[in-house]
Design a protein that fits this description.
Blueprint (H helix, E strand, L loop, with lengths): L1 E2 L4 E2 L16 H7 L1 H12 L9 E5 H11 L8 E5 L16 E7 L3 H13 L4 E6 L11 H16 L12 H6 L1
Parallel strand pairs: 3-4, 4-5, 5-6
Antiparallel strand pairs: 1-2
Helix pairs in contact: 2-3
Length: 178
């Protein structure tokens, strides 16, 4: 989907909910990560969107899948936001993530906070663990999802530019005309 006034393209993917009770689901996460990898490769090659910067935003299990995809060497992801994710399940590939990553957790979800802090120690890219006051698992409390959206938007705004520049093709209309 594209928002022509903002010059932004959005691609949305979903996954069926997978139980996270054990690390036994990890092989499934690896195969699920091939979906955002494929979408990102397509966007990199597609003339209408080639040159746009790519960011991943995902929550819960999807956040783990997105971070696994961001760890693939030939997938150009510039920034990522994991909302209440399970970065501990990303395992070995997590240390290969190059996208500047925000691990966003609620202050009332102590387990997610500890998981995110452990995962942050394995990241070699620019990253931050941000704690949203009053938010629990999946930010279900009133106004906490809005807070998460603002924090994610701020992260993308800050990290999807380099030295004050933007990608060569930021206007979707211009991209189509090329």
């Amino acid at each position: 989907m594209r928002d022509p006034e903002e010059g932004t393209h959005w691609v949305h993917w979903t996954f069926r909910r997978t139980s996270l009770r054990s690390h036994a689901v990890e092989p499934d996460l690896a195969s699920l990560a091939s979906r955002p990898e494929a979408i990102t490769r397509w966007a990199t090659d597609e003339p209408n969107v080639r040159g746009l910067w790519i960011g991943y935003f995902a929550a819960a299990t999807s956040a783990t899948v997105a971070l696994r995809a961001a760890a693939v060497a030939d997938v150009a992801v510039h920034a990522a936001v994991s909302l209440d994710g399970h970065p501990d399940l990303a395992a070995d590939p997590f240390g290969r993530v190059t996208a500047e990553t925000l691990l966003l957790v609620g202050s009332r979800d102590r387990d997610a906070l500890e998981r995110s802090r452990r995962a942050a120690r394995r990241l070699r890219c620019a990253h931050r663990v941000t704690v949203a006051d009053g938010a629990g698992s999946l930010f279900a409390e009133p106004s906490t999802l809005e807070t998460a959206a603002r924090l994610a938007a701020d992260w993308f705004t800050e990290h999807m530019t380099a030295a004050g520049t933007v990608p060569a093709t930021t206007n979707p209309t211009a991209a189509v005309a090329n």
